[in-house]
Structures are given as structure tokens and as C-alpha cells.
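Fold sample X.
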Amino acid sequence: MRRILNTGLLVLVAYSTFAGGGWVYGKNQGYFKLAENMIRSPYFFDGDGEVIDIPTTSIYTTSLYAEYGLGANWNIIAYVPFFVRATQNKQVFNQSGLENEGFDLNSFGDTDLAIKYGFNQGGTVVFAASLTLGIPSGQSEPEGSLQTGDGEFNQLLKLEASHSFYPKPFYVTGFVGFNNRTNSFSEEVRFGGEIGYTSEKLYAILKVKSVQSLYNGGGDADATNTFFGNNIEYFSITPELDYNFSEHIGLSASAGFATSGRNQLASPNFSLGLYYQL
């Protein structure tokens, strides 16, 4: 938590992973998080948005997130999924025998590198603009239908705005972004926001996010039981709790639920992480 002077008032701002919003870290301040994400699903949103049965597919991602202030309102950000395990259970038909023997894949995932600039940081509403480069460092060649990356280099431009209700312990954030994708993938529009409650020890956050495809790519129209296909869409709701054990160390837990989607696994995404703040 940091304090910003604003027309004589101290405005309290809580930070959580991927949720700096319109605020940026000051020089030599930062946030680092080691996290484990898990989604396990026997269901899949197909290209028409209908939920269909699939062999149970799981993706376990161990990652490091880092955001660091360079000064003059500039932050650098890195998301590095350094170990991704994807599995698909075998499937047997009583009459026709074994259809799917099952697969597993262990690899590095796709990395995100970003630079973020904050402006109007002393105002009632603060803003930040960022450019994120998606590096195709995961395995995009399918093992069965499993991948740990999509094989394309993308560039996400995002604008965020945030407001604190200090002295009440609440804040709100909204964002909109455009994701330019290569390798015949469709471009995407992304938008969402969050509301949060902050105290000395506990942050309670509710996030919403939507990803909408522009369907202007020339690749495969639909994904195939994977996390990394083309024309992926969803609307998700994610409650999150962050607890500070000390001034610098805390624990974060969240569960993301997609209320609708296309070409995407149709089960909750759970995350648990340990973070350190400078």
C-alpha cells in the first residue's frame, strides 16, 4: 500500500497482481509474485458458445510476476510462466475401444513483457497507459490437443483509470485494450474493471473481464480443447483475497469463473500466490 498526496488528503491505494490500475509504482518500488494457477475441466465452450463434453483437460501454471518503478511515472512489468503442465485424460468407448490414450505436456509458457506510464497521478482519477508484448516462448506445436503457448507475437495496448474513495476504504478501476495478434490470429478487444476494499491487512477485490474477438484472422476458426486457440472469447468474474502478513509479504488467492465463452475451457480457474512488495 502506498499513499499519494492529493489536494491535502492522503489517498490510500491498494496494489494486487495485474491490478495496479491507473496507479504506478514510484522509483525503486515494486511488486513480485510467485503463483500457481490451475484449471481442470471436462467441459468446453465451443465456437458457438455452447458447453460440450471433452476428455478432462488440465493446465497447471507456475509463474513469476514482477512490476518495478523506474521513476518519472514509468514501470516495467514481466509475467514469466516458467513451468506449464498440461494434461488430457484418456477416453474409452465401450463399443469402439480406446479413442484417446491421454496426453501430457511439460514446457515453458508464453511470456509477457510490458512498459507502463502513469499520468495525472495527483488527480482525483488517475490514468496509466501500457504496451505489453506477448513473447511466443511456449510450445505451440500440439501434443495431442495440448499446448503451452499460441505461437504468435502479440502487442496489447491498454488504458486504465482508477479512483480512490478515501477516507472510505474502497477503490474502483476500469480498463480497455486492443490486442494485435500475428500468425493469422484474430485481433481482440479487451475491457473490464474491479472494485476493491482495503485495510491494513486484508484486500478484498472483485474483478470482471471480457475478451472479444474481431474474427478477422485467417487461421483456424475454432480452438480444439485448448487454452491457446484462435477466436477465444469470454466474460469472467473473479473474486480475490490478499492478506498481508507483514509490510512486505502477503498471500493472494482467487477463483475466476467464466459466465460465457467461445473456444475456451468451461471451468473455474484457481490461483494461489505469495507476493513481496518493496
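Fold sample Y, listed below.
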Amino acid sequence: MESGKSNTDSVSIGVFATLFASTARAKVLQLFMLDPHRAYYQRQIEAATGLAIRAVQREVERLTKIGLLYRRSEGNRTYYQVDIQFPLFPELRGMVLKASEPVDRLRGMLAMDDGVRLAFLNEEEHRVLLVAAAGRRPGLTASEPFRFEVMTSEAFVQALGENPESIEPFLVRGIDLLGRRDDVIWRRIESAGYAVEKGRGVA
């Protein structure tokens, strides 16, 4: 055994080599680090990253093997999610946020705010509409170049039915920042005739 080398050192070097070895891995890492509370199945990762499904399968397997991701099955789908107890999670997320473009950084911040239910960005006007979770208020303050507008879930649904023009800058000319399409409010949005585009990198 070499002097000064321990099993812990070997494990650490292996983790670093896995984390920083490829562009494909960097894309997968960015997706998971920007919205770490969300679980994704492979086809969602493929759509969000633009990677081929074989590359997605390879990368999630490697990240699961080192313990950064964990997997669970529901029916015939396997979901992957970040283990936020992973020792390097805070540092990795911090690096991803710093290296990301402003819109991605905004998405990363909103995804971790439990007061935010849905978020829409009108890029042309740099306006962000936040739909607040019931009984909560988003804890974020606007940061350049974005300006925040906040609506309660009830006010948003009411506007959809009675005054849709007031929110059309976000539904017609805006993008969906968080991709939470399983939220019941999306049924209201779709039944009102709106097909909001997902932002780049949003699954």
C-alpha cells in the first residue's frame, strides 16, 4: 500500500472523476441541481438536456452509483432524484448556480422557494409572475434584470376565468420556468386555451 494514501482518498478521487468527466454529465448535473426536489424519469431528462437516451441512461447510472442520485420505481417508470444529503451537494449546487445563465439561475432559486407554486417569465419585458402556494408568500426578492409580480393561486385562477388579458403577457408571450405540469392549475390553463411554452432546459 502506498504511503499517505487511504481508502477515503480513493473514494474521493473516484467521486470527483465521475462528477467532472463529461459534457453530458454536466448537463444532467445542471438539470438536477437547479431543481433538486424534483424527480425525473429518463425521457424527461432526455427532453430537458437534449441528450440521446443512451447517454442519459449512462449518466444517471453513474451518478446513482456514487450516491448523488437515488432511484425509485412507480409502475413501469424509474424516477431519479438528488440525494440532498450527499456530502458535496451544497458545493455542487452553488457551482451550478454560479455557472448558469441568469434565467437558469432564477429558475434554480424559484425551485427551492416553497412559497412558489408556478412561475412564468416574460423575457421581452423581464417580468416574472409568481403564483403563490396556498397560505404562503414567496420569500425571494427580485434581482436584476427581473421584476417579480405575485398572485395567489385563487387570484390567478380567477384571472384566468374573468380577466385573462391581465395575465396573457405571461401565458401567451411568456415561458413556464418550473415545468410543474402535474399541478391542477395547469388543467385550468389548458382548458382556457393556453399552451405555454416550457423554458429551455425545463422538463
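Sample Y note: The beta strands are 40-41, 69-74, 77-82, 116-122, 127-132, 147-152, 175-176, 197-198.
Also: The chain has two domains: 7-91, 101-198.
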